Amino acid sequence: MRRRLISMALMLSDAVVVLIVPFLALYIRFEGSVDSRYFTMLMQYMPFILIIRLGVFYTFGLYNRLWRYAGINELLSIFGAVSISSVILIMYMYVDGATLPKSIYFLSWFFNTAFIGSSRLVVRIMHYLRQQHDGKCSKVLIIGAGDAGAMIAREIKHRYFDTKKIVGFIDDDQNKQHQKLLGVKVLGNREDIRRIASECSINEIIIAIPSAGGAVIREVVRECKETKCQVKILPGIYEIIDGNVSVQQLRNVDVEDLLGRDPVQLDLEEIAGYLRGKRVLVTGAGGSIGSEICRQISKVSPSALYLLGKGENSIYEINGELREKYAAEFDIWPIIADVRDKERIESIFSEVRPQVVFHAAAHKHVPLMEAQPVEAVRNNIFGTKNVAEAADRYSVERFVMISTDKAVNPTSVMGASKRIAELVVQNLSKSSKTKFVAVRFGNVLGSRGSVIPLFKKQIAKGGPITITHPEMIRYFMTIPEASQLVLQAGSMAQGGEVFVLDMGKPVKIVDMACDLIELSGLVPYKDIKIQFTGLRPGEKLFEELLTAEEGTASTKHNKIFRANLKQVNENRLSSGLSMLNGVETAEEIIKIMSGLIPTYKSARLQENTARKNQAVHIEGERYNERNRQYRQAVNDI
User: Fold this and answer.
1) In 395-551, at which residue ranges do the beta strands (DSSP E only) sit?
2) Catalytic: 406?
3) What is the pLDDT of residues 410-453, one digit of tens each?
C-alpha cells in the first residue's frame, strides 16, 4: 500500500511538472512577453503532452523503482524517458502543423529532465536524512587511505549511504594526515585508532590494506580489538587478482590475515601463454589445491578443462561453480576416475588428449598414511606413475606434479611416497618430449586437514585446542597463493625440475592457536585451554623444503627456486618400484622405501626399534634382579 501511494505521489508530481514546463519554456524564450496565440496552441496540445509523457515514463519504469537507492542507472532512465517522449511529441506536433519556436522543445526537454530528476533526488535525500536522524547508520572508520580504501569508501557512499556513514580514514603516511579523500578526512595513524573510535563512537572498522604483511595486520587488529568495534578486512592481494574491490569482499578478520606476506607478483601473460586455448586436465580437481588451480586456469581461457577426481561430490561442486561462470567461454568436463586405475587413466588420455596436466591427486594426511602405507604407495607412487606415463605416451606438452615439503628428509610414509613420486617424474623427463616438473610447498591454510578448521571447531566447543608439541613449527601459504605459484612454475618448465616455493618464515603452531582464540574474542589459556598431546607417528617438529646437499638455484621469479637434485638412479628406481608393486606389509614397504631414499628415517621403524630396545632393557633388568637375588641367597647360606 505504501509503495502504491509513493508511486501515485510521484506520478502526480510528474504530471504537475509536465503541465507547467511548456509554459515556463515559453516564458523564458520570450523573456516574459509571450504572444497569446502560443498559449492557446499549447492548451490544445496539453492533454496529448500529458498522456505521452506519463505513458513513456511508466514504460521506462519511473514509478516502480526504489528511488531512495537511486544512482547512475536511474538517472539514465529519466534521461531516456524524457528524451523519447520529447522526440514523439516533436514528431507529432510537427506533422500536425504546430508553429512553436524550436527552442521551446529543447527548453521543455531540459526542464523536464531537471525537475523530474530533482524530485527523485529529493526522495533519496529525505531517506538519507531520516536514517541519519534515527541513528540507524553504522559509523565506519576505514584503515588505509589508498586505492583499496578509496574504492570501499566510494561504494559505501554510492550503495550503502543509508546504512553506513564513513567518519574518517586512518593511514600511517604522514603526507596524507588531515587531507581529505572523497570528502572524508584522514584522522590519524594506527596509534590513534582507539582514541578516534572512542571520540567518534565508531561502530565498524574496515581494514583496507590488502598488500600489508602479517606483522602490520597483526598490530592493526590488536589495536582494533581494544575498541570493541566490529572489524572487517578486505582480502589480500592473492584473493583480488582480478583487480576488483567491493564491499561484498569484506569479511571478518581471520588468522590467515595475520600470517599474510608480501603479495605475489605473477607474470600473467607467461601463464596465459601456455594455458590459453589448451586442453587442460587436473587430477584431484575436487581437492583444496586442485579446485583452486581449476579456478585460476579458468581465468586464462583454456579451450577445455577436465576435472578428474574420484570423489563425485567434490567434482560435482567445482564443476557447478565453474560452469556457472565460464560455461559460455570454454568446455568443462567432470571425470570420475581413480588415478590408481591404469586402464581407466589410459582410456581418458586416449579420449581427451590433454595438452597440459596438473597432477594434484594424492593422499596427504601423515598419520593416516603412516597407519596404512599400502594406500600411500598405491595412490601417491603408482597413481602418479600411471598419470605421468599416460602423459608421456600421449605427448602432453607439460606435466606439473604437486609435491610437498614432507618429501625432504622424510620421516613419514606420506613424505617418502611423494619423494618417490618426484623420482618417477624426474626419471620420465630424461627420455620424454613432455616437460615434467614437480612443485614443492608446505602447509596450505584452509585446505582439508589444515589445523585452522580443526582449531575453529575446538574453539566453538569451548576447547581445549590440541597441539602435538609446543615447539611445533610449520610453513604456511594461502590456497590462492600456492595455486598461482604452481601455475607460474609450470610456465618455467624445461623438464626434470623440482621447483621449491618461497614459503616465507615458519610459524609456531601454538602462536597461531593463540591468535585464533583472540580473534574469537577469547583469552588463551583462560577461556580456551591448550593441550599438548605429543608428536604423532611420522611427524616432525619442523619441515624442510630442501635437503642439506640439495641447495637451490634462483629463477626469474623471486618466490620460485629450482632444487639442485642429483640424477635419478634409474636401475635402483625401477627395481624398487617392482618390489613395491604388490607388497602388503608395512615393514616391507618401509624397508624398500628406505632403499630408494637413503635420507628416509622411518619414525615407525625407529619407534619399533625403541620398543624392542626397551623390551631388551626390561628383560636385562629382570635378569640382573634375578641374578642379584640368587647371589643374595647364596650369601645367606
Assistant:
1) 398-402, 435-440, 443-445, 465-467, 473-474, 476-478, 498-501, 507-508, 530-532
2) yes
3) 888 888 999 999 999 999 988 899 999 998 877 666 555 567 77
